[in-house]
Amino acid sequence: MAYVARDTGYGALALADLARQSRDLERPQDALELARLAQYGSRNSGATKLHAFLLTREAWAFAHLNWTREFRRAVGQAADLFAENDDASCPAWLENFDEAELLGVIGARYRDLAATDPRHNEAYSAILIDD
Fold first, then answer.
1. Residues 69-72: contacts with CB within 8 Å, 24+ apart?
2. Model confidence pLDDT, tens digit, residues 61-113
3. Where are the alpha helices (H) located in 25-120, listed in sequence order?
C-alpha cells in the first residue's frame, strides 16, 4: 500500500517493523535483510532522520549476529546522520525518534553485545554516562 501511495518512507517503516519482529523471533539474518531492503527502498528519500532510524535497525541485527565491526559502523553512521537531521523533511510518524531513543537503542545493543563479550561493557557504560 505504501508503494501504491508513493510513500517510500512509510514502506521503509513497515519493513523496519518487520525487521524488529524478525529479531524478536531470533532470526537476525532475516532482520538484517529486511533492514537493508528498507534502506534500499527509501534511498531517494531526503529524510536523514529516517536513514538514521533504519541504520539502527541494521545495527540491531548486527549486534544479534555478533558482527561487532559492522555494528559499530552502522551506529556511527546513524549518529552522524541524526546529527545532520533536518526536521522539515522528517515524517510525522518519526517524530518520536529523538536523541534519547537513538542513544537508548545504541546502548541497549551494546548491552546485548556485552552479554557475550565483556569488552563491550566500556562502550555501554560510556553511552550511559555520556551526558
1. 71/109, 71/113
2. 999 999 999 999 999 999 999 998 766 667 778 888 999 999 999 989 888 88
3. 28-41, 48-65, 68-83, 99-116
Domain ranges in the chain are 8-129
Q: List the CATH code of the domain at 8-129.
A: 1.25.40.10
- Cβ atoms of 117 and 104 closer than 8 Å: no
- Angstrom CA distances, 114 to 44, 76, 78, 120, 123, stand at 35, 18, 20, 5, 9
**Eight-state DSSP code of residue 120:** G
Environment class of 57 (CB within 10 Å of its CB; exposed 0-12, middle 13-18, buried 19+): buried
